[in-house]
Amino acid sequence: MATAVTIQPKPGRLFIGGKWVDAVTGKTFPTINPATGEVLTQIAEGGEADADLAVQAARRAFDSGPWPEMSAADRAKILWRIGDLIDKYNEELGTLETLDNGKPLFESRQIDMPMVAEVFRYYAGWATKIHGETVPVRGPFLNYTLREPLGVVAAIVPWNFPLLLASWKVAPALAAGNTVVLKPASWTPLTALRFAEICQEAGLPDGVVNVITGPGGVLGKALVRHPGVDKIAITGETRTGQEILRDSAGTLKRVTLELGGKSPNVVFADADLDAAVRGATVGIFYGKGEVCAAGSRLFVERRIHDDFMQKLVDRARKLQPGDPLDPKTRFGAIVSERQMETVLGYIEKGKAEGAQLVAGGERAQVNGRGFYVQPTVFDGVRNDMTIAREEIFGPVLATITFDDIEEAVREANNTPYGLAAAVWTRDVAKAHRVARRLKAGTVWINTYNNYDPAAPFGGYKMSGYGRELGVHALEHYTQVKSVWVNLKD
């Protein structure tokens, strides 16, 4: 099996129409290991012309290749095979993800990659169950519906869960019979390129999945504006989602947006405090806080505040950055130097606005190098402070105190975002009441960061719209046709 020591990422080319090609301009860019600051390899820097070639390839595969003629059962077999191959290459894929993103090998190999495989197998099961219905209309007519694929889907994915979030888009798109142009984040392209090889090995026809790499400001805009693209599926920051909506208006293409978050994690006095402390730690420090649904605003009921914070701070201080390639590491490197500087800038803003820094707050290094930030906890935060309003996308927790349910719900909802939330209490009725009132697409009760291919995920308010995973995702990759048949003699 491949190991962290033996893997040397090879130069990345574009995967278009089943062939590996250089960018039209011949340009490349480096992808960096955030744990060391060293260049991993050079990646093809695609431009607008490359995006057009990828869309043309996907369009040909959708209109006239073997894919549209293939039975749903045969599509299902390919999707299942992709899932099996993801499992087969788990160690290699996990190592590539860790090298590129800086997340611990434990997360990449034991959490991310197994779920990628599970997502493909889940949607393999759906491929044969996407169907229309007969409708009892008036008159001597037979009316039935067909649920058909949209066409060419452009999947634009971020750098925090590169292959996992790609699977959330690619798997349902393929299950429904679409073709795909996948655009990974520039900081983390390696697993997407390896995934293209896996698609070939699984028997996916040429052009059904294409992978193009390069700057989002160029490739993303080209895909969004391209008349040959029928749908955009993106996970990214809210500002990017707004730009995509504006750019897609000219072609009125379908768009689903999974955007930013500033998720409230609400701990009531009657909660299991030890469990809630663990949940708060996982909620903000899993994935180095580079998680859309991170529990970055912690609401603690006043009468347990001191005890709770002591436990939390002790736990945060014990969680120290380590070499992501060490299987024992649980807290890795920030994805890039630029993102590290962004996180450190927010920490300075927190201090300047009067929040109390009680843990972390500094840059760290492992073996004298890398882009690391200590797990950071602020106390005494007001909900109108910058660190409580803006998505930091890093390991920075803003703690806010409340006195009763009404205040907790009001302040938890006092945000432009609505991606996720959590409630900690032993009172079952209270838990359900509060969950109903929280304006978020996902609410966890006495847990945090749970996901499953069958459970829908998506946001309220400025966290976007549309749902990924589950049966609801398929609605965004299909369209309904109504067919009328005259039965009168």
Describe the structure.
This protein has 489 residues and is of the alpha/beta class. The protein has two domains: 14-259 and 463-482, Aldehyde Dehydrogenase, Chain A, domain 1; 264-455, Aldehyde Dehydrogenase, Chain A, domain 2 (3-Layer(aba) Sandwich). Helices cover 38% and strands 22% of the residues. The chain has 15 helices and 22 strands. It has helices at 48-63, 72-88, 90-101, 105-126, 162-175, 190-202, 216-225, 238-248, 273-285, 305-318, 337-352, 386-389, 405-412, 428-437, 470-475; strands at 14-16, 19-21, 28-33, 38-44, 134-135, 141-149, 152-156, 179-183, 209-211, 231-235, 254-258, 264-267, 297-301, 356-359, 363-366, 369-373, 376-379, 396-402, 420-424, 442-445, 464-465, 478-486. The strands form six sheets. It has a seven-stranded mixed β-sheet with strand order 14-17-18-13-12-19-20, with helices on both faces. A six-stranded mixed β-sheet has the order 9-8-7-10-11-21, sandwiched between helices. Strand 15 and strand 16 (369-373) form a beta hairpin. Helix 1 (48-63) crosses helix 7 and helix 4 packs parallel to helix 5 (162-175). The radius of gyration is 23 Å and the shape is globular. The N and C termini lie far apart (68 Å). 54% of the residues are buried.
